[in-house]
Amino acid sequence: MLKIVSARVIVTCPGRNFVTLKIETSDGLTGVGDATLNGRELSVASYLTDHVIPCLIGRDAHAIEETWQYLYRGAYWRRGPVTMSAIAAVDMALWDIKAKAAGLPLYQLLGGRCRDGAMVYAHANGATIEETIEQAQSYLALGYKAIRLQSGVPGLKSTYGVSKTRLFYEPADAVLPTENVWSSEKYLRSVPDLFKAARNALGWDIHLLHDIHHRLTPIEAGRLGKDLEPYRPFWLEDAVPAENQANFRLIRQHTTTPLAVGEIFNSIWDCKQLIEEQLIDYIRATVVHAGGITHLRRIAALADLYNVRTGCHGATDLSPVCMSAALHFDVSIPNFGIQEYMHHTKETDAVFPHAYTYRGGALHPGEAPGLGVEIDEKLAAQYPYKRAFLPVNRLEDGSMFNW
Predict the structure, then answer these.
(1) 255: Cα within 13 Å, side-chain hemisphere
(2) Is 295 designated active site?
(3) What is the rounded distance in angstroms from the CA atom of residue 389 to the CA atom of residue 334?
(4) Tell me: the pLDDT tens digits for 232-287?
(5) Where in 194-337 does DSSP place strands (E)?
(6) Active-site choice (160, 169, 187, 356)
(7) What is the DSSP secondary-structure string of 94-158?
(8) What's the pLDDT at 182?
(9) Which segments of the chain have a pLDDT < 50?
(10) What is the pLDDT at residue 21?
């Protein structure tokens, strides 16, 4: 038996906060897992330190499924983003160890490659449509085959997805939540103009995506999807809050624009009705928030039965540990769709040296044993935790709304 002899949580902030679990075994092998929950990082750190790590010591590091079930069924208070992010960190670290013990890159233990690399999409954003198109053209020059478009809305001081910097978008930006103001009416008038301009400037050989960020009603989302049909979006993401999964039925009745949702999902139960009724085209659950590689593979297998493809969340609130895990998952499943990709800062890349690389519009996980990513603990210690909240959102009349 390959025993777990120690585990520790490492919290670091090389430009933004990350929570990493590192597990060590009796033969000296180590594995890392991402446990970052944006804006609530210390909750997962405490869950791991106080409630999970004591239960790991002495367990068989190779018994990944048994450990997953132990942490999920044994907690009684199942699911939720804190619990599932903690389980995901353990799961990633154990897969990392198992693949290192085998001397193989993780994707080989998941069945081998289904594809050479994972097609990724970049984020083009600007205060105006012209600025967004200009940035999209720079990504085209870098070989990207898919680009998410977000642009400022006339009449609103701030808009989701429009950052102060070009490559790095970090919404968790203050020690107390900043407040944004939103108008669905103004937004709905602006997006068709963005896509019309994008097709005129970028042509039809590039995939164009857009994120609504849970801000519309089903009928509003249906109207927007219909308005955008002439421009053939790759998807509309997070059109409405998905707590009520049946909301997507109404959207489906009014548009053929593909729909994607799921970055805040944390279990297969959040996805079940959406997948079984084919109310979406892409499921965006991610490794760290959906219980790790073990559970995300179950979600993907269910989705494959209904012609739903994956489109995992991949913003900078996921560390390179999670990105690497996602890539090994992406290249090994039959129903992969696309992978979100945002560049980390140079400081983050230095703290988390990794084997994955970008080439020709795709990310490649590399051939290093395990996940192919480590954490430089000495360097991580130079970047202490900094409290940072995600913003909140209000309508123009002052009432709270979805951010």
Answers:
(1) 27
(2) no
(3) 37
(4) 999 999 999 989 999 999 999 999 999 999 999 999 999 999 999 999 999 999 99
(5) 207-211, 235-237, 259-261, 282-283, 309-310
(6) 160
(7) HHHHHHHHHTSBHHHHTT--SSSSEEEEEEEEESSHHHHHHHHHHHHHTT-SEEEEEEPPTT-S-
(8) 95
(9) none
(10) 98
Give the pairing type, strands 357-359 and 118-126.
Answer: unpaired
Amino acid letter at 3?
A: K
CA dist 95 and 31 (Å) reads 8
- Name the pairing type of β-strands 118-126 and 362-364: antiparallel
Task: Report all structural domains of the chain as residue ranges with CATH numbers, in order of start.
Answer: 4-108 (3.30.390.10), 111-367 (3.20.20.120)
Longest dimension (CA), the chain: 63
Helices and strands, number each (H, E), in the chain: 14, 16
Tokens of 146: 């898919």
**Rounded distance between C-alpha atoms, residue 198 and residue 183, angstroms:** 23
d(CA 226, CA 232): 10
Closest CA to 344 of 18, 4, 7, 5: 18
Amino acid at 302: L
Question: How far separated are the first and last CA of the chain, in Å rounded?
Answer: 47
- Residue 160 annotated as catalytic: yes
- Out of 207, 210, 213, 354, the active site residue is 213
How much is the pTM? 0.96
pLDDT of amino acid 159: 83
How many other C-beta atoms lie within 10 A of the C-beta of residue 164?
9
pLDDT for res 162: 77
For tokens 């548009």, name the residue. Answer: 255
SS3 3: strand
Q: What is the pLDDT of residue 171?
A: 81
Alpha carbons 300 and 222: distance in angstroms, whole number: 26
Name the token pair of 117: 């690399």
Backbone angle region of 114, left / alpha / beta, with phi > 0 → left and psi within -120 to 50 → alpha: alpha
